[in-house]
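To whoever picks this up:

The parser on our side crashed when reading a file containing two proteins. I've narrowed it down to the boundary between the first structure block and the second sequence. Both blocks are reproduced below exactly, byte for byte. First block:
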Amino acid sequence: MSTPDLNLLVTLDVLLAEGSVAAAARRLRLSPSAMSRALARLRETTGDPLLVRAGRGLVATPRALELRERVNHLVQDAEAILRPAEALDLRHLARTFTLRTSEGFVETFGGDLLEHVGREAPGVRLRFMQKADRESASLRDGTVDLETGVIGSTTSPEVRVQALFRDRFIGVVRPGHPLCQGEMTPARYAAGRHVVVSRRSIDKGPIDDALQALGLEREIGTVVGGFSTALALARASDLIASVPEHHTEGLRLGLHSFPLPIPALEITVSLLWHPRMDGDLAHRWLRSCVRDACAERRVSAGS
């Protein structure tokens, strides 16, 4: 069965509204003969005469009267779909967005983001989902709207990326830890017992490479899956945690932080989304909210 010509819906809508081939032709800027041919095609497609002669004019058949309102609504819906998006009414926007990010990001930037969103769009709800890996499938299938993190080899090349801020790793220990006093040297840092953060349970990374270049090796006490867990262990023991500075600002309250005594280890934290959401006005607005929240928080922190 062949697919019907959907352009005929517009023609049918105008014919039923005008009740005249000549008037419909003028409205659609067609010749009367072209409109007559279109009516003939509609009759063939629907199996109904639709408009029949009555004196000098045309009258609609019962089938045409039945279709008139339905066809008009279909055409209006189609025109609305194909029309450029209208201005976003944030005060009446009702939508839930899912953000996949780390606990540290939510702890540090979540409050400012929620305040920003609530002030401009009180009907919008944010759902934060913990980030267990760097796979992009959840962005692709739409279960996640936005994601924050560091770009890795598993990040899909189709994903859109915008840098939010640069961060550097620092060392963190409990108050009263021996490393709170005296000069911090690579040897002192490496000599302590460390808690390593790795989602894949890998106990070696860039910090170990930098220490190895200096002829040093640190002792790994344990490996955990997130920065918040690493900081909780550092708070309750003599373990040394090495974490991103801005990303963990709120989580480090009450702890002693210090610059790593090795070449600067920096990362770029980015915002990620799927390209199919590029043109969505509400999604664009949310992306700007995340960027503003990160920028405002860093300015208030004096960085």
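<<boundary where parser fails>>
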Amino acid sequence: MGPAVGVTPPDSGGFGASRPSPRRLPETAAVLEVRRAVRAWLRTFAESPGDGATSSTGVAVALSGGADSLALTAAAVIEADEVDALIIDHRLQTGSDEVAARAAATALDLGCRTARVLPVDVGVDGGLEAAARRARYAALDLAREGRPVLLGHTIDDQAETVLLGLARGSGGRSIQGMAAYTAPWGRPLLGVRRAVTRQLCADLGLVPYEDPHNSAPEFTRVRLRTEVLPLLEEVLGGGVAAALARTADQLRADGTVLDALAEQLLESARGHERPSNAESIVDAVGDGSTLSVETLATAPEALRRRAIRFWLLDGGAKALTEKHLRAVDALVTAWRGQGGVAVGGGSPETRLVAARERGRLTLRGL
């Protein structure tokens, strides 16, 4: 990541200066809808003191200059106590520094306390979209200084995410979409349509930046946005984006309960009495824990698979797929003497292998 470029109001004292006066916003339908969404998010997720006093709701906003993040920033400076704008310059296009500088100037005009441009270096692993996302989130995390970062994802983005997860076919978890808050990332606009954020910008006389990547057909998400979702809306008579978002919310609520039950199952499987010759498995990775096959085998499949997933992740596994989980689950439910299952993770010199040994699942680095 390149050095951050700090921008503050000319009469301020820097990052800790008093908040500038926010720009006065007209009370249009779009403005009021976005403001209500941000206000509701702050009330639900912003940290508040235990004595019931009014808390300081200081946040950072990831501002790209596009309509969604501009609308979010405009509403946040009204609803939050302090707002610092963080602008990522991916440096993937000529003139990206100028785009970032204009976004920073707009943030200050709207009333942000500070605006900082964060140049990043985008790698190549996993494709351009994934690499840019990793670089962006890493830079935001470093610059947020302990505050939550608000992101401008809308209900339309949620619908696209659900469709992408559905195409992967990796179960309910993959179509739960984005949560309103997964610390430190906040998404106040998940109930707001993209058209509303554009209307807010028009109401305020703001000209959003149109990123060429957002219309490039080589990106899967762009084709979902410009081809698939409009066709679904036409064929199914509208309301598809909202329906997909509701499905994600329902699955996330169900998943939270199932995950809690799976954690209980995992603790039970770990706590089951080990065989007397447990020294044969002391080279298990992580904290050396193994799992009782008997305890897992008697549990419902939905809980057992989740417990196995948590156990593998705790042991250092990465990029788990449904194929991995099914293969490890078969060590419990379809045991025929098969060998271990290699899962992603470990170190460059070793690989992680889950195996069944004397009635227990083990996870070793080989």
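After patching the parser it read the second block fine. The CA atoms of residues 155 and 162 lie 11 Å apart. The longest strand covers residues 82-89.
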